[in-house]
Specification:
Length: 172
C-alpha cells in the first residue's frame, strides 16, 4: 500500500467507487501489476473452496449465513503463495465484523483477508487467516483496531471467531 502511494497512486476508496466495478478498477490499477501471480473474479482457484473456520470451531459465514470467505469478491495469489480476498464492506459491517469504526466519514471501505499458507490447512481465522481494513484516514490497519484489550482477548480465544488475533499478535 505504501509503495503504491509513494509511486503517486491515489488509494482513496470512496462512495463514488462503490460496488464490484469500482473495486475491480481500484484493484487492477494498484495491485495486479505489483504482486500477483493469479487473479480470480468471482471464481474458485485463488481461495480455499470450503468454509473458513472460526477459532471456536464453527464455520465463519455472513450474518445471513449464506456465504463464507472468498465468495463474491476479488481474490488473488501473491508471489509467496499467500491468498488474499478483498471486498468492499459497509461501515456497519466494518464495525460489527472487523471491529474498526469508520462511521461518519466512510460509507464503504476495503476489507482484506489473508490466508498466509494459501490453500493448505488449517484455514482457521486467527491461525493462518487474518483480516485487515483499509481506512482512508488511518491507512491499512488490523481488524479490531478500535476494540478494547478485553474485547480483543475474548475474540482471540477458543470461544471467539479469531478475527481480532491479528491485532493481538501485532501488539505483543
Amino acid at each position: 500500500m505504501l509503495r503504491i502511494k509513494s509511486d503517486g497512486g491515489d488509494l482513496d476508496y470512496t462512495i463514488s467507487s462503490v460496488g464490484m466495478t469500482g473495486m475491480k478498477n481500484w484493484f487492477n490499477t494498484y495491485f495486479v501489476p505489483l504482486i500477483t501471480t493469479k487473479v480470480c473474479y468471482y471464481t474458485s482457484g485463488c481461495w480455499y473452496d470450503g468454509y473458513i473456520k472460526k477459532l471456536s470451531g464453527g464455520n465463519f459465514t455472513s450474518q445471513s449465513g449464506t456465504w463464507g470467505l472468498g465468495s463474491s469478491t476479488i481474490m488473488f495469489v501473491l508471489n509467496d503463495g499467500t491468498t488474499v480476498s478483498i471486498d468492499d464492506s459497509s461501515a456497519g459491517q466494518v464495525k460489527s465484523i472487523f471491529g474498526v469504526d469508520v462511521t461518519g466519514y466512510s460509507v464503504y471501505t476495503i476489507t482484506m483477508w489473508f490466508d498466509i499458507n494459501g490453500l493448505r490447512q488449517p484455514n482457521t481465522i486467527g491461525k493462518d487467516v487474518f483480516a485487515v481494513v483499509y481506512d482512508s484516514k488511518r491507512g491499512l490497519i488490523p481488524a479490531c483496531y478500535d476494540m478494547t484489550s478485553s474485547e480483543i482477548e475474548k475474540n482471540c480465544s477458543s470461544t471467539g471467531s479469531g478475527v481480532c488475533c491479528i491485532h493481538k499478535y501485532l501488539k505483543s
